[in-house]
Inverse folding.
């Protein structure tokens, strides 16, 4: 079972990963976007960590909804509402149980990713974060929520697979064919997020 | 860059705006710039906002006859919903608030969330989406056209209607009409440097330019060997006219992207006017300057807005903001 | 550069100014920009001019309450005497003309020749020399201090006096008083590119800056590793205060050199206000923007002008020009 | 004796030299000035040539005063009034004789150079055009006006000698010590002007 501590570790790990990779994310965003993705997520996850530090342990759902709200209110841009919604909806789907089973998380994440798709109107192949998130959710579901490592691997592959895509959503879509050949920054940060999930498990 | 640290550029700028403009109320912490006399009884209030780095847009357009409030986000990053919620609460006189939103995924999503929250708090909110950039084809293969220079026309003209006391539906309808009547096309002669990245957002050798750029330091649709002012004017104006097909006189905005000297921009205006003349398009008013910028990018954009008598009257109406002022 | 050919930049810009500003009469061939209602009966007329590349200075300051005419020279090259002679003839109402001359050898010599010729034609001419740049020591070892940001204060305040109908000696005296009360200091974060040269006028690596620059793309007195906005404000304000020692409130001009984003310039203003506060200097008014520029140079300058009640009243008086407008 | 044709050849030669060396003059001016000296003189001497083409032969004095007036009304900057004054005063000093002796020209040039010094308030050693003009006038006077080549040589030396000087007049003076180590653009163009004089003689 996964407790609130696990979800805190996930968020802290994600924050550390984003910090470490911020320049790379911004670099990717400068090729096909506006050169702020790293700074955006750094700001957001720093706020998440800070908010979590100020709150009592809580439940898995509470941790994620708090994190989601922090992202929405500190990131801005496209990724703020999208990642914020991902975490809030996942958190809401987890309800207020003190511990959740991995299969429950797999289900909840699927709901979160669906909410992202609905909010942003994007689908697989549009060269967005969904191209990392959806394969991750699939891989997790296939293992009945047991293999976070497989999810991380799938997210990584999904992020890599955005390179040859032509963007159809977000800023990169303005570039038309010139968006081809670059990895999507949001898909890349999504892979970091899922890797942090696997990392949180590894640390159990 | 003339900054302290990248993290504080927006807050620093807001403090600087507060010091220079006593006629504005600047909430530095919450990043909201409000005209000092808001809420103005009997008036619909316009609220806009977007990423910073496009100054004077939007804070420079806050004041009587234009915006009631502006919400600056981080550089090139749309503001967060709380900013717009706060702004709406500060400026609503009870007659409602119009959100002027440039069509970018981030702005759309954050303003959407803000509208829901503000309505929960009892503010009547309408939204207008500005999407004038003809360099982007508006299809299912893109996020839709970007909002660029037409934002100035929308904010000025709808702002004048609000100042006159028009109700929310009318202010909204006018804003939509301005957006529907306006198109833009932009060109970069250099990339820009964001504080966070600290180096140019893309490589553009001196002998080349980017056609069809936006206002976020992103590359355009196409790169070409350097063109003359005359050739750029032909290209940009024709791109706009092909899409707009105006049947009457137009408002012209010849806009600098930030680092193009006014000397060059006025020279470019001469070429823009020449093409318009050659194409038989009558010009009602012309505005030349750095209004919707992309930090220190060199380049320019052309926005045309077909103007009937009402729009023209509202354009000419008095306005009193940091960056656009006449009649008072 | 957004130009056709280097040879035509000034003429192109004048055509563009004419198209954008129907309230100005622009003689493109003879390079004179005149307010349309000139000569204005009963008013002394201010005429200024200088090399192009400093826009909006001077043509952007032509209009009621400021200049009666401007004479743009080639880029960074003072105008020729015939321009000022023509301008003086066009604007003189019989009450005389004040030449506002920035202190550069070329400007001084050409305006001097123009004054002689205009007086031969029966126009009463007075001259005021603007020399506010504290980066240059005013000694026999230099051509004297350069005229930079204070020009805006001189033209606005003396222009307001002229608009009120003050006689030539009084307008001249006020102009001199403004210049004597004003000092500036400028900093470059990049060189600029003149159309004629086509490449930066000097090499300045991104990590360095030039302290004590003028407005002609010339290097400054000293090169240093990059400083923060805060450090630059300390340095510039202290350089000015050391020389000015104001005993009362000051007008502040935080001026961009052309390519510094307004976002950064406002942030710099916050730092300027902070230093002034720390030094106990009260601020009466603040103006932030790109007003006295050096083409596409990145950088800024600070001008302070000690303002008594009369100067303040004249500063606040209505003005209606392309670049500075309020109250009408 | 030197006739009007000689003076026209001088002016045309000067125009050609300025055209040829414009980039170099601008380059020198960009080091310690404002990067326009080449363009300034090109514009001015093109106007001189054009004006002379439109006028009948005239006298030596008329050729130079016309040239001087053209420079004043087309160059602007510091060099316009200064070079304009040089040629106008030299022309005036030559009076309206149809031909002048070399020694007369030497005298007239001295008057012209003195007028430049008076107008600009500079003196030898200030790192200006005077540092080329004054030695040239001296050399010419010493040869009783017979050796234009000596004058050109002296002007060249004078221009070179400005390298180690610290400027005390004109824009370069703003640089203080940083003006040291660069050749003065105006002294350089003065050397071209005197070389063109020698060239006009050579072509006799
Ligand atoms: N409609 C969308 N649906 C899903 N993800 C999107 C959408 N639009 C953009 N994104 C993601 O957001 C990322 C950009 O985020 P960020 O740079 O922080 O925001 P912005 O584009 O506003 O600067 C893109 O790389 C992409 O993965
Ligand atoms: N006071 C002066 N007396 C004599 N020559 C001067 C003086 N000031 C400047 N000059 C000369 O003028 C030259 C610069 O000419 P130019 O670049 O055309 O004008 P500006 O300095 O106005 O741009 C200098 O190199 C110097 O030789
Ligand atoms: Mg981005
Ligand atoms: Mg962004
Ligand atoms: Mg010059
Ligand atoms: Mg020069």
């Amino acid at each position: 079972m996964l407790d609130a501590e696990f979800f805190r570790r996930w968020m802290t790990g994600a924050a550390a990963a984003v910090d470490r990779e911020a320049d790379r994310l911004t670099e990717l965003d400068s090729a096909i976007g506006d050169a702020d993705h790293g700074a955006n997520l750094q700001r957001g996850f720093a706020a998440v960590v800070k908010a979590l530090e100020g709150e009592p342990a809580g439940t898995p759902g509470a941790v994620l909804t708090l994190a989601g709200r922090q992202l929405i209110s500190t990131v801005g841009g496209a990724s703020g509402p999208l990642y914020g919604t991902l975490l809030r909806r996942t958190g809401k789907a987890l309800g207020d149980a003190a511990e959740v089973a991995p299969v429950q998380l797999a289900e909840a994440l699927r709901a979160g990713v669906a909410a992202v798709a609905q909010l942003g109107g994007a689908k697989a192949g549009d060269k967005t974060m969904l191209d990392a998130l959806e394969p991750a959710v699939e891989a997790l579901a296939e293992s009945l929520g047991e293999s976070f490592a497989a999810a991380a691997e799938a997210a990584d592959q999904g992020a890599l697979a955005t390179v040859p895509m032509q963007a159809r959503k977000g800023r990169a879509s303005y570039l038309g064919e010139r968006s081809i050949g670059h990895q999507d920054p949001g898909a890349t940060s999504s892979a970091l997020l899922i890797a942090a999930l696997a990392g949180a498990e590894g640390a159990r | 860059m003339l900054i302290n640290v990248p993290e504080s550029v927006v807050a620093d700028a807001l403090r600087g705006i507060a010091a220079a403009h006593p006629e504005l109320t600047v909430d530095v912490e919450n990043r909201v710039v409000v005209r000092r006399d808001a809420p103005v009884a009997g008036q619909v209030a316009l609220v806009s906002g977007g990423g910073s780095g496009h100054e004077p847009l939007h804070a420079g357009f806050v004041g009587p006859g234009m915006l009631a409030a502006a919400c600056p986000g981080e550089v090139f990053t749309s503001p967060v919903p709380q900013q717009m919620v706060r702004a709406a609460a500060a400026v609503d006189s009870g007659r409602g608030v119009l959100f002027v939103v440039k069509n970018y995924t981030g702005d759309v999503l954050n303003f959407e969330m803000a509208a829901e929250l503000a309505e929960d708090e009892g503010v009547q909110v309408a939204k207008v989406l500005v999407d004038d950039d003809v360099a982007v084809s508006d299809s299912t293969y893109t996020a839709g056209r970007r909002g660029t220079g037409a934002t100035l026309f929308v904010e000025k003209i709808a702002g004048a209607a609000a100042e006159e006391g028009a109700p929310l539906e009318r202010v909204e309808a006018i804003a939509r009409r301005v957006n529907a009547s306006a198109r833009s096309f932009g060109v970069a002669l250099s990339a820009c440097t964001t504080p966070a990245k600290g180096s140019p957002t893309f490589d553009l050798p001196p002998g080349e330019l980017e056609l069809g750029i936006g206002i976020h330091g992103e590359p355009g649709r196409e790169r070409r060997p350097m063109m003359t002012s005359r050739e750029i004017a032909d290209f940009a104006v024709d791109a706009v006219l092909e899409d707009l097909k105006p049947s009457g006189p137009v408002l012209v905005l010849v806009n600098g992207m930030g680092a193009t000297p006014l000397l060059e921009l006025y020279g470019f205006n001469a070429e823009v006017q020449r093409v318009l003349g050659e194409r038989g398009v009558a010009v009602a008013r012309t505005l030349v300057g750095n209004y919707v910028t992309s930090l220190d990018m060199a380049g320019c954009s052309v926005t045309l807005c077909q103007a009937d008598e009402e729009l023209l009257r509202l354009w000419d109406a008095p306005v009193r903001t940091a960056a656009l002022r006449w009649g008072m």
Notes: Residues C 77, 105-106; D 29, 33-34, 36-37, 40, 77-79, 82, 120-122, 128-130, 169-171, 184-187 surround adenosine-5'-diphosphate (ligand 2) (CB under 6 Å). The mean pLDDT of chain D is 96. The longest strand of chain D covers residues 2-3. The helical segments of chain D are 4-32, 37-53, 60-74, 79-94, 102-120, 130-142, 148-160, 185-202.
